[in-house]
Amino acid sequence: MHDAAAAPEFLSREPRERFRGGLAVGTPLAFAGFLLAISFGITAEPIMGPWATIAFSAIVFAGAAQFAATAVLAASGSVVAAVVAGVLLNLRFLPMSVAIAPWVRGRLAWRALQGQAIVDASWALASHGGGRFDPIRMVGATAPAYPTWVGGTVVGVLAGDLLGDPRTYGLDAIFPAFFLALLMNEAGSGPSRLAAAAGALIALTLVPVAPPGVPILAASAAALVALRRP
Amino acid sequence: MTSAWITIGVLAVATLLIKTSGPVLLGGRPLPERLTRMISLLAPALLAALVIVEALSHDGTIAVDERTAGVAAAGVSLSVRRDVILAVVVAAATTALLRAA
């Protein structure tokens, strides 16, 4: 239980300050997201046209699911297959959503809005370790990421041919490197190291056999495994 | 073209429900201690899986490529100095250089 004595330090700070903290750490990543969104715009435009491509980023706002669903449609896959690919990827937000839940305060609509701010990087940035999350910081980190994601998609749709492939610049290595940095901060105690190792093992085992998204989702089970250890 | 719009619509609703479920259904109330402890272990488990999937896999197969090398270089950088920005720059630069080679 989170009793008053154990209340994390961030809860005593002004929400505005927590939001600004998220904004500061989220902005460099939003720039990386901008460049990746350009590559989404370039990839998706020939398959679904300019308007659907931009709407996809504006309404769904989930990079991995957008790339996966687009790849299915590009391979003449069915709508059902495209939706399943996207949903399986986005189901990883379910454990993230449960993890932040105890820390989300306020009225129903405001709580729902905070949930909408869940994206991998912002969620990870909102973690203060030991299962403590600052949702206001997460909202701050997502605030710059949304306009850059949509804006990057527009740029990719309009001017993609002029820019070339962002992968040339190694931009696809940014997010895994960032997750690794957060993991090294997070995995301090014995149980959290065990959870990390088990999560990695589950993902590694499932990558060749399960549809995209399932390896990450299934890694949640590692938390149960680590919990069994006293 | 229609199939793209249907995909977008269904994914939008599904993603909204997934992201909202935790804060709306469980938000702002204390959870049982075992659940809280399990939740505290979700972050390392999911982060480790994200690293594996994004650095070591490509289109459903295990793949060791330039990106893997870039992320490994970031790991070395982090073990020397805990600087996230530096690590991210090291990862992108290493990956780009290897691809250019």
Summarize this structure as a short list of keywords or feature phrases.
heterodimer, A: 230 residues, mainly alpha, 71% helix, B: 101 residues, flat
Description of the structure:
The complex is a heterodimer of chains A (230) and B (101). Chain A is an all-alpha fold and 230 residues long. Chain A is built from eleven helices and no strands. In chain A, helix 1 packs across helix 7 and helix 2 runs antiparallel to helix 3. Chain A starts with 14 loop residues before the first helix and ends with a helix. Chain B has 101 residues and is mainly α. Chain B contains five helices and two strands. A two-stranded antiparallel sheet of chain B has the order 1-2. Chain B starts with a helix and ends with a helix. In chain B, helix 4 runs antiparallel to helix 5. Chains A and B meet through helix 1, helix 2, helix 3, helix 4 and helix 5 of A and helix 1, helix 2, helix 3, strand 2 and helix 4 of B.
